[in-house]
Hints:
Layout: E1 21-28, E2 38-45, H1 46-52, E3 71-75, E4 81-85, E5 94-98, E6 102-105, H2 112-121, H3 125-131, H4 146-154, E7 156-159, H5 166-172, E8 182-186, E9 194-195, E10 201-206, E11 211-216, E12 225-228, H6 237-248, H7 268-294, H8 298-301, H9 311-326, H10 332-346, H11 349-363, H12 368-379, H13 389-416
Helix pairs in contact: 7-9, 9-10, 10-11, 11-12
S-adenosylmethionine (SAM) binds near residues 81, 191, 192, 253 and 254.
InterPro entries: SET_dom, SET_dom_sf, SET_domain_protein
Pfam family, one: SET
Organism: Leucocoprinus leucothites
Amino acid sequence: MAGDNLPEELYPSASLDLPSYKLTTILLPSPLLERSPIPIATLLPSSLSTTLLSANNIPSQAIPYSSDPSYEILSTPTKGFGMFATRLIEAGELILNEHPVLIVPEIPLTDGSPAWDNLGLSLPERERSEMLTMANCRPVEECPSPVEGIVRTNALILDLTPPRTKKNKRRSGNGDTGSSQRFGGVFLKINRCNHSCGPNAAHKWDVSNLSSKLYALRKIEPGEEITIFYTDVTQSRDARRAELKRNHRFLCTCPYCLPSPLSAPISTEAKASIASIISESDENRYQLRHWLSTHPSYLKWSTDLCRADDTVTTSHRLALDLINKESAHFLQHIFLEELALCYAILGDEDEFRFWAKEFIQKCKIEDPERADEFEGWLENPKRYKKWAWRQKQRDLREFDSYFSLSHDLGHSKRRYS
Ligand SMILES: C[S@@+](CC[C@H](N)C(=O)[O-])C[C@H]1O[C@@H](n2cnc3c(N)ncnc32)[C@H](O)[C@@H]1O
């Protein structure tokens, strides 16, 4: 889950042939009549530009503005700007649904600079000037155009494969429209989220709305910074810091990397205690990264009556404890879903309801279809096809063995009579 993070290496060595790309600005009508349309400046392969930007694939209206946003953008002491909660935000809650201002190819342009500048110029003044205040971690020698530097610092990976509608499924047979190339999207607000190795939010791209949803992975307190992850944070501290430095050019200063403030010189004992906190966290993250391959498997358990009933539930509850400890909530939904299914297979309605509700709350934005499926089972748990499967199998076996025993007895009676 959890969201698509910032690209590992958004710009590998290959480069694009510019003439086959088309610069188009989409203007999405605002739902409020008095507001101007919402612009998205796109640089897309001509063929994709034609299909994606056809009337069928463009939303008829922009996402409505929230009149009472749960966030504000503030300056931070060491990380530039950041996004902060203005009130309590519940786990799974939508924080913001936003259209990108720029959509660009993942690989660099052969004739870079003018194309980048033209892209910036194709935005209306208000959006262009806000975009130009965004972070730019690339030196001018590397990215002569500030627009390119801003894109490389901020762009989130977008998949532009048009949504699978009945119509385009029929047209292409399997719904594959042949657009496998990835793109980057720049968002004026979501991109203000700084990285944390214990993020409290994630984002999810929705091609049918041409927008990304930012949502809470756990409860966020008023005034708390809203953070996402730019790299795989189940890696060790050294590995993730090296990756952030290489790809995003900053040394992470989040509390999971620096469990104590950098300021005053610290004693040898304090240093040793920090080192032990870091090594414990590395070990926890390593365990979480490999949990599903090193701990009892739900799939095997769900078809194997020889394994104890609580094998997976006990193990998954331990994983959830570790997830809380490391603030690795982007992994939570995997365990919540399997816990709910374990209790369904055990026919334990109270536990099933508890974990299913937890799962729905956490995944309704990441995977709304699966959340709907669980809502259906909550209405009537017995509709789940493997409801109480273990007990039913045991009853069947008992019946079988009773039946074969009486059958054998019948035989022997006949033999000895
Ligand atoms: C996508 S921007 C985030 C918003 C940015 N702070 C701003 O002012 O617009 C990424 C940049 O923010 C800073 N940043 C993000 N997360 C950070 C972290 N955990 N530690 C230090 N700097 C961070 C880095 O300068 C990075 O290049």
